[in-house]
Amino acid sequence: MDANYQGLFYNIEKSIEKKKQLFEVSVLRYAARAMLATLFLTLGTAIAVITAQYAEKALPGSGKFLYSFMFSWSLVMIIYMNAELGTSNMMYTTVAVHRKLLTVKNAIILLFACLLFNLIGGILASYLVSLTAVFHDLPTDHFLFTAIEGKLAKTPLQIFIEGIFANIIVNTAVFSTIRMKDDAGKIIAMIFIIFIFAFLGFEHLIANFSSFPLAYFAANGAIAGMTPSVVGMNFLLAGLGNYVGGGLIIGLTYSWLNSGNHVYQD
Questions:
Q1: pLDDT, block means (10 residues), the chain with 266 residues
Q2: Which alpha helices (DSSP H) does 201-262 contain, by range?
């Protein structure tokens, strides 16, 4: 890379080096940052579903709008608190392999570790949040439960395709924050971009790591259609779709577009 180049991929490569160095020096610290990502996602999901329920009671049909707006703050917390999010790391690790900053083996290990600790963090945070007063005795038709039941009823093809679009959107938000210098602009961009996937109900693996356990614990396991096989299939297909969207369509495509010595660089 040109030493004078300070654009998008200069910053992406710096981020990759930080992740690589942290993982090599302290897997425990890397794991903690991955668990923090789903802590923030769980908090974002919690406030989103609770406010959506109140909105639906006050004005039927408004709950989804408020849910999508409040959920979008999850990414703001993740970005500004420097947590490790598996779906954005799908982009980072793919770029790292394409640019020979990581071997395929090391990229897979780093990404798998991130996903594993995202899952552990999501389960733990969801369980603890479910013990708080606001999540006691939720009605069976609560926004949280109906939303999860809808996810569980999707066909495999729907989950996969929605997973692709979800991570295109998430990594577009990540790219936007890298390119912007103003904090207010970053926050506004993240909220309105993430709003797209939240409102359309697309499948985001790491968000599901938080929302599925939260619904399960809050309902004491009484969620229609929530079986290990159905949840496992959702996680698998959403994850594969997320990788196609974030890793290949955004990460690999833009890394290729920005390789070489041509003038058109992001």
A1: 68 96 98 98 98 94 95 96 98 98 98 98 98 94 95 97 98 94 94 97 98 96 91 98 98 94 86
A2: 205-218, 228-242, 253-257
